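Worked problem 6 (solution included).
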Amino acid sequence: MSEPWAGGEFGERGHCLLAPNPGIMTLDGTNTWVLREPGASTSVVVDPGPIEDGHLDRVDETTGEVGLILLTHHHFDHSEVAAALAERKGCAVRALDPDWCVGADPLADDEEITVGGLSLRVVATPGHTADSVSFLLPTERVLLSGDMVLGRGTTVVAHPDGRLGPYFESIERMRALVTDGQVATIWPAHGPVLDEAGAVLDFYLAHRRERLDQVRSALEQLKDQPHPEGIAADELPRRVVEVVYADVDETLWDAAELSVRAQLAYLAERG
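Solution. The predicted structure is:
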C-alpha cells in the first residue's frame, strides 16, 4: 500500500495545497502548487483546483498576494476556481487555450514568465489533452507536469482531445530536459513528488509502448473470435479493454477505454 500524500513544502520555492477531491482519476486529490521566490511577497498559483469543500477559500487564505494563476490544462479539477480566485486576488489567469484565460494572453511554448523574481518556462506537452503544458522551474531543476505525469501510476490519454502521437513526443521532450540536466524532479498535479524524473519518464515510455503492443495483440485475438456480424467499430475499444486490462479493477475500465481509443487511433493513423 502506497503512503498517503498530503502535500507540503518542497524545495525553496514550492508549496503544495492538496484539494479535497480524492478519487479514481485524481488519486489523493488535485495538487495546487503555490510558487514563490524566497523573500518575495508575490506568488504564482498553478492549478487552483476544484470547488470542493472550501478549497477556494483555503487557497485564497494561504497564498497572500498572487501575481498570476497558471493552468496546466482545462480539466475542471484543475481550473474550476481559477476565475474566482483571480477576481479575489486581482490577477490574471493564463493557459494554453485562450478560452481559459482571464485578463491575459494565452501561453506560448518556451515562453519565459517572471513574477516576483520567480522565473518559469512554459513547456508545451500535449498528449493527456491537446492544451496540456508543463512548467520548468530552473532554479529548483523541477518540472511541474500537470496530468502528463502522475505521482503514482500512469496518466490517461484522454481521447479524442488527447492523442498518443503528441503524448510520446511530449514524454520524450520531458526526458530530454532530464538528460540536459535541466530537470531532476517532477512535481505532478496528482500524487507525490517524483525525485527520480529520468526513471519515471523511462517507465512511462516503456509502459505505453508495452500497452500498444498489447492492444495490437488484442486486435489479433479478437479477429480470431467468431462473431456473426463482426465487432462494431464503437464496440471494439471496450472489447480491447476487456482483453488488455483483464487484471485491472473494472472501476478503471472507463478511463482505460479513453487511452485504448487513443491507441487505436494512433495505430490507424500509421496503417
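Discussion: Residues 207-269 form one domain.
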